[in-house]
Each structure stands twice: as structure tokens, then as C-alpha cells.
Design brief:
This protein has six helices and nine strands. The protein is an alpha+beta fold. It has a domain at 77-212: Actin, Chain A, domain 4 (Alpha-Beta Complex). 24% of the residues are buried.
Length: 213
């Protein structure tokens, strides 16, 4: 037993045995949320927490989505859309995300002034790669943002939802059928809406992942 005392005689700057295991080692934990099944699609969200001896830990999201029969992974949101519709779909999803984030992050743009909060939010929602953490809910795609992606760490990990009826007309027919949302497509065709126009929206759905705070 006395031989173990050498552990306390070591003098590294950080990894001292006087600290608890969590604070003296690099730590990673992953937690899976309850899988969601929408039509023929299953999706699941992993919250991955890590600590690397800094002022605080951090986290990010990893999501997985598959069609169930056959089992094929849906690797990205972009893959849901016909190639010629991808740019329009990105604009719809990006605009909806930014609208919701401006509210939940309390961002107010002032004309002629640099706004760090607004720039961070815009940069974190610029392209398809920014929307890589997604799961399929019953009536919307749920998108999660890691701390620091769209705002300061203190804001946690925001999440937003974009309703299928905003972009169902741009999707590959295969995924419309897999998600069992053909009724939304028929309704849009009944209203005879132009390609770039979404149906009359209800209020934005805004949430914050409290687990990251």
C-alpha cells in the first residue's frame, strides 16, 4: 500500500491524483436518446460529452437515421432532396433555423453595427454540414446544434424544428413515402403553391437542450 504513495509525489501540472478521476483524465461519455420511428424510418440522437482538462467540458451530437425495410442509412439532410432542388431546400431550412434561433438566442441586429452573436449564428447555419445532427419527428425534422456552433457556450445546445410541409415538394419521392408524409404533398398540390413557397406557417418551434448547460 505504501508503494502507491508515489502517485502523490508526482508533480505534473494537470494530471495529479489529488483530483477526482473526472478532473484528472480525459473523459468521454455518449448517451443515446429514445429512438424515434416515423413511417418506415428510424432515427436516434447521441449526446456525446467530453472533458479535456479545460475550464469546463463540452458536448456534440451524433445522429443516425435508417430506412427500416430495407435497412439503408440516411447519411445527410441533403440526400433527402432531388439534386436540382437541394439549393432551394437549403434556403428554406436555413431561413427557418435562423428565424427560430434569433428568438431563442435573443439576437437583435442593429443596422451598421457589427454583431458577434448574429455573425456566430449565421456562420453556424451556412451550409448543409451545419445541419448534420438531425432526427425525424412525426411532423418535422428536428435539428440540433452543439455548444459554440451558433452561440456562446452559456446558451447551451439549441434545437429547432422545420416542418415537412415547408419542403416536402422538394424531396425525393422515395423519402416522402418512407416518412409517410404523402398527404402533405397532396395538400400542397391541392393548394397549387409555387415551388419556393411554403404553406401558411404556424409559430416557430423553439427548444434548448438543457442537458448541455
Amino acid at each position: 500500500m505504501n508503494a502507491r504513495r508515489v502517485k502523490f509525489e508526482q508533480t505534473p501540472d494537470f494530471l495529479t491524483f489529488g483530483k477526482t478521476r473526472y478532473f484528472r483524465t480525459y473523459t468521454t461519455d455518449a448517451h443515446c436518446s429514445e429512438p424515434k420511428i416515423t413511417g418506415n424510418v428510424i432515427s436516434m440522437l447521441y449526446r456525446v460529452y467530453y472533458y479535456t482538462l479545460g475550464a469546463h467540458g463540452n458536448m456534440f451530437f451524433k445522429t443516425f437515421a435508417f430506412t427500416l425495410d430495407p435497412v439503408v442509412r440516411i447519411s445527410s439532410l441533403e440526400s433527402l432532396f432531388e439534386p436540382e432542388n437541394a439549393d432551394v431546400a437549403l434556403t428554406i431550412i436555413r431561413d427557418s433555423a435562423r428565424e427560430q434561433l434569433r428568438i431563442t438566442l435573443e439576437i437583435e441586429d442593429q443596422e451598421g453595427e457589427s454583431n458577434f452573436a448574429s455573425e456566430a449564428m449565421l456562420g453556424g447555419t451556412e451550409n448543409w454540414d451545419c445541419f448534420s445532427a438531425f432526427i425525424f419527428d412525426a411532423d418535422a425534422i428536428e435539428i440540433h446544434f452543439a455548444p459554440y456552433q451558433v452561440a456562446a457556450y452559456a446558451y447551451g445546445a439549441p434545437a429547432i424544428s422545420v416542418r415537412y410541409d415547408k419542403f416536402v415538394h422538394l424531396m425525393r419521392k422515395l423519402y416522402v413515402q418512407s416518412l409517410n408524409i404523402e398527404g402533405l404533398l397532396w395538400e400542397r398540390e391541392r393548394q397549387n403553391l409555387p415551388k419556393g413557397m411554403a404553406p401558411m406557417p404556424s409559430g416557430p418551434e423553439i427548444r434548448t437542450d438543457e442537458a448541455a448547460k
